[in-house]
Each structure stands twice: as C-alpha cells, then as structure tokens.
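Input record (Table S2, row 273):
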Amino acid sequence: MSTQAPVRKVTVNTLQALKKRGEKFACLTAYDSLFAELISSAGAEVILVGDSLGMVLQGHDSTLPVTLDDMIYHMTCVRAGNTGALVMADLPFMSYAAEPQTLESAAALMRVGAHMVKLEGGAWIAESTRLLTERGIPVCAHMGLTPQSINRLGGYRVQGRDTSQANAMVEEAQMLEDKGASILLLECVPVELARQITELLSIPVIGIGAGPHTDGQIMVMHDMLGITPPSIKPPKFIKNFLPESNDGIRGAFAAYVAAVKNGSFPAPEHCFN
Ligand code: KIV
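Output record (3-methyl-2-oxobutanoic acid complex):
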C-alpha cells in the first residue's frame, strides 16, 4: 500500500467551498519555480504570477513596462515548481485593450499553465470577462487600486473612500460576477467597503489592504519577507513574517498562511478605515 500523501489540487471549486464554510484562504505572488514550490508546499491555496514583477524583479517604478512575453516566461517557471496551488497570471498593461487581443493574450498564458487570468478594471472589463469565461478561461477581476492605471489615479492611494465611488465599486463588482468572473480581488479599499462587497458576492473575494473580512488575503512575496526593494515605499498593509519564523523563508511562508487562516492577519494596523 502506498504511504504517499495524495497530491492536493486547488481549483475554483475549492475556493468557492472555503468561502461557503467561512474558511479563509491564503495567496502569495511568485515568479519562479523555487518560490512557487516553497509557497505551494507551505499550504497557500493560490499563487499569483503578478505583474508586480516589473517593480520587485525588474526594478521599474510601475508595472507598465511588463510585457506579455515577460508574463509567459515567469508563468512557465512557476508552473514547474507549483505543487497544487491554483495559479493566476496577470494580463499585463495594454495586453487586453481590445477584445480579440484579450483572447489571444489570455490563451497564451493558459497554454503555459495558468489556471486563471487576472484583469484590472471595473465595468470596462465586463465584456472581456464574459468573452473569456464563455470560452473556458476563468477570470479574476482586480478592482480598487489598479496599478496599471497609476497615471490616471495619480498615485498609490486608497480607493472607494467617498460614497459615490464606493457605490460605483459595489455595482461594478456585482456586474463582474454576473458576467462570469470567478474571483474578485480588491486592493487598497476601506475595511467596510470590502466587507460589503464580500458579503454581497457569491464568488470568493481576495483582499490586499482591504481588511480582514475578505475571503482570502494576498501579498507580494517580497513584502512578506521584508525585502521590498528600497525604491518602493512600503505600503501600510504589509507585514514581514520572517522575524517570527523558526525555519527561515519556509517558516515565514507557513506563518503567513497560518495567520491568514486563523484571522490574525491583517491586524487593524494593516487596514484602512
Ligand atoms: O501584480 C501583483 O502582484 C498584484 C497584487 C498586488 C495583488 O496584482
């Protein structure tokens, strides 16, 4: 009889079931096979191959220079190390500006092993969400602070603080779910707005700087290891888990996963009210 543990394979259904049971799930970014192995083995349910790689790996001051070829390369690396997490890949800046282009870009990422693609935007990505979903490509819609729009937003700031912006965000989140989005990601929004959206939607909601009530939490890997590049002002919502690890980087990933699941992260000091 085999003594090997069964291989865990996280799917959208797994996340949906966790949301139903009120159990939190943990997500982290990764960009290569080694870290994909460490993060998935630590029990994180989701790995994001994020276009944040433009800032933490390539040294740019925004995510705008990242290309689809960059994303394909890093997605291929992550696939090689992943041990069962659901892997989402970002569609980078201007790779989904028109509908046929969106389908081609998403297909390229799915061909190298992505399980889902992530697009930044609200109502304007609704039609792309429908097209992708109908053709078998699951979508994570990223709302709130959307770094690819940094030049329009005017800075890395909390979004949805005023009532009309908050109401619009609630409406657009519902619209994206109705169009078939499998996951919503909220970045840098006030705690109560994130709570309202999480309770309203039936799809899982992942938060970063969005308080403790979202179904899952995500952080950029470098931020939770305390190695945010010096050129980036560390955001309020990050926490370095390395000091509380007794097993180096492996222990820091395990501590993060445990803190998300037991609800001790994010704490009030990581949230916007
Ligand atoms: O690119 C990225 O890493 C992201 C996270 C900040 C959510 O979109």
